[in-house]
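[audit] Reproducing an earlier prediction to check determinism. Same input, same settings, fresh worker. If the tokens differ from the archived copy the diff job will pick it up downstream; this log only records the rerun itself.
[audit] input (204 residues):
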Amino acid sequence: MNRLPLALALAAVAGTAFVALPATTSRVAAVQSAGRTQSKSEGSWGLAAAGLAVGAHVGLAMATRTARKAESSYKETPADERLFEQVYLQYTSEYMKGPMYWHKDKLQGSLPDYPGRPMIRDGKYTPYVLGNLKSFSSNELAFLSMLFFGVGLYGNLQFNYYDPQWAKVDAGGYFNVSYIVESLLLPISFFMHIACYIQKQNGK
């Protein structure tokens, strides 16, 4: 009679162990699979970081090599030098006009030219002496000089020789005003010629 409860207790313990063993095995397998997945993900992230680092170093090396080739192949042309001079001159001129730069020549009446706009540089006249004509090129001024010379010469010849105006006035008539206006262009053509020469000296 005493052996029956003992047998029942042993059976219960054995059943509990039988049921708990598969659950423990499944937990161990889950932990192992999670560890493998984590190790795979860590390995993939490591490969990605290594590839990114290698790509960055290769890109920097290629960019440095290209920059060195560009520096070695570049040669300054006269146009580049002239552009640098123009930009530098414009920058310094604007700086000299400002209140941060004081000089006695900026006082009113000290010099005939304005600060930053010299009339003579390196022994040559600058375009600033031309006033409103400083933006004209030498070709444009040459064209205007020839045009004014032709029109002025025509007006003078018509007024004095081909259509004498003094004889017409003596006969009771009037001057032809167009001849007078045209003749005034003849001396203007001379100044256009001088302006053309100055712009030519300045490379314009």
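[audit] rerun output stored. Observation attached for the diff report: The beta strands are 120-121, 124-125.
[audit] end
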